[in-house]
Every structure is written in C-alpha cells, then in structure tokens.
Task: structure prediction
Amino acid sequence: MTDVYYDPYDYDIDSDPHSVWKRMRDDAPVYRNEKFDFYALSRFHDVMTASLDTKTFSSAYGTVLELMTDEPGDSPMMIFLDAPKHTQLRKLVSRAFSPRRISQLETNIRKVAAGYLDPLVGRSEFDYLQDFGAKLPVMVISALLGVPEEDREQIRVWTDSMLHREEGKTNTDRAHADVSANLWGYFGRYVESRRRNPQDDMISALMSAEIDLPDGSKRRLENVELLAFIGLLSGAGNETVARFLGWTCTLLDRHPDQRAALVAEPSLIPNAVEEILRYEAPSPVQGRRTTCEIELHGSVIPKAGKVLLLTGSAGRDEREYPEADRFDVTRAIDRHVALGYGTHFCLGASLARMEARIAIEETLIRFPEWEVRWDETERVHTSTVRGYHRVPVRV
Ligand code: HEM
Result:
C-alpha cells in the first residue's frame, strides 16, 4: 500500500505535480482515488496502450472527470465520441483540415505574431501571455475558419471574456450570457452566409463534404454540427496553445543556456517544441470510462470505472525517457503523448506545432533574453489545462 495522494483539483499538487506523479508511476501505477471515484494511469506505456484501446477506454461518457456521465452521450463533438461515429466525423473534418490549408496559414500567423510582438519592442516590461501568448491562438483559429480579418479582433475579445474566470465565481452571470450570445450569434450568421455563398475556406469545405453512413448512404453536416465543430476547435485550440506559450516563456527563463542555444541555432526550435510538450504538457489529463473490467499491474479496474490517463506524467516517465526530469531542447524524442495518441490524436497537431514554432522564432528574434517576474505570475486552475495565466517579464 502507498499513501500517495493525487487529485486534479488540488491547487498545491497542480502547481508542481511531478513528485506525486513519480511516486504514482513507481508505487501505484493503477492509482485509486476513493474521494473523487477515479483510477489513474501514470506510466508512459500504460497511457499509450489505453489511448490506443478505445474499445475498453471509452470517450463517449465525456473526458473531463467532473462532467462524465453514466450513459454514453450523443455529443456532436468528436472528442466525446467512440467509433463508428467518431470515425465518420474525423474522416470528414480531416479532409477539410488538410495539410495544404494548414500550411497556407503560415504567413498569416507570422504576421499576427509580429503585430503583437513589435509594439512590445522598446518596453522594459510586459506580460508574455496577456500581451501575446493568449491573443495569438484565437486569431489563428479565426484565420483557419476563414473569419474575415476585420471581424477577428472582435471574436478575440468575446472569446477572451468567455474564458475569463474570476476566482471563486462561476460563469453563469448575465454579462457572460450576453457575450456568449454575441459570439454564437456571429458564428450562426457566419455559417448561414457560407451556406448561401461558399468560399475557399474550411467551413465551406466542411459544408460540401459528405459523411459515409454504415448503410452505404451519405449525408452532409447540419448547421448545428458545424457550430459544434467551431466550438470544439476554439475549446481545444485556444487555451492549450496559450498554456504552451506560458510554459515556453518560463522554461526558457529557467534554462537560459537552452534559450541561448535556440537563439544561436533556430533550426532546433521544432525539436524544442516537442521537448516543451513532453516536459510540461499543457493538457496533462485525459479522462475515459471502461467498458469492461480490466486487470493491470495486479489491480482490477471495474466496468464503468472512471480512468484518468496522465499524459503529463507519461512525459516524465524514466522508463521511456532517460533523465526524464532534464529539460534538453536537443533531446532525441521519438514519441510522446502530450498531443494524445491513437484515435483521438490531436486534430490540430500540425497547426499547433507550426504556431508554436513561429511564436518562438518571432519571440527570440526580438527578445533573445528576458527575466520572468516570478512573484507576479499567475496560474490557471482547471481540470483540463495546466499552466500560467500571467507571465510578466522584464527585458
Ligand atoms: C499545444 C497545443 C495543443 C495541445 C497540447 C493539444 C492536446 C490535445 C490532446 C491531448 C488531445 C487528445 C484528447 C483525448 O485523447 O481525449 C487533443 C485532441 C484534439 N485537439 Fe488538440 N491540442 C493542442 C492544440 C490544438 C489546436 C490548435 C486545435 C485546433 C485548431 C486542436 C484540436 C483538437 C481536436 C479537434 C481534438 C479532438 C480529436 C479527436 O477526438 O479525434 N488542438 N488535443
């Protein structure tokens, strides 16, 4: 028996979970939390194997611990679906999410990044996340969707206030409902206008694509499904990238030799992106429910057990990565699970990687050095993403 304790809601554990995760990997590879009624897998191999075994580890009951249901849901969002519905949707959206469409965004992403970073040059202090890292991803998703440039800043402001949470307050107040109505009203009209007048953009491509149904017939996506997809992209692609950039800024401050190496050799940046993802996963916990009883490492997880796959812990597993706690932008990384693994592997992975690379390149060109003002940093505490909300720096 071990007395290790882990839950994803504990602020103290969340601020530095690595020693707890290490004890779980070593002493409790099938960890059980009675209070919140879940199991957790923390070793790289177990997280990877469970991610691949979607028949046993289902996403259809929800993947966020506190939102899991007792019956499989019928979500329009593929992240909460199993085969065959997941397969149908994923096949369809992957076509619209083509490498061509993603690579076309490179120039635009660089322009947006430069537009936020240039005005910061010459200042002695700024907030890397509030002034840059949290703004960039919302603009990128708008560009991906094909939202006209003149509307993107408004979308960003609305999305920002949707994501904003006062400590201890829920989001059900009137102002929040108004912003949500504005944002979804905008996207509702946007989808209608693309129905009437298709363009060369992702939403128009999704409208014309057809889902192959099991009986051999085909159908097109309805407006409500398109809106759910927009919601999924903004939910999955904004906070994660912002948290990633917070980790980038703080890790490179703590490891100035690694930062200097990237300044001297920018071709190392793509590998640095993988190392940052491995070292501090922005989305460290993926929930599943078991569809049958399973035995693992001598423990039994019952049918309908809630299981947390700790992708954040898997990245520090010494069984997979030599000297796993050493941050090294030149490390050879064959694989990691920070973007998920298998069926639900991050749909936006190539976009996220490109966005991360450009953000780091454009930052280091302008700011080869900085100093984080640690006592003014702020963290976000949610059960889905982990990282910083504010990272004030002195340059
Ligand atoms: C550094 C940034 C990102 C991280 C760390 C990240 C992480 C992840 C992870 C761990 C999953 C798997 C979830 C699971 O297994 O249940 C996932 C899925 C997904 N991600 Fe990302 N993501 C990032 C950026 C993005 C972006 C930019 C987009 C879209 C523009 C995106 C869209 C999605 C979608 C749609 C899924 C669901 C895929 C499916 O269910 O088949 N992500 N992501």
Notes: The chain has a mean pLDDT of 93. The longest strand covers residues 286-290. Residues 339 and 349 are 7 Å apart (CA to CA). Residues 11-394 form a domain with the Cytochrome p450 fold (CATH 1.10.630.10).
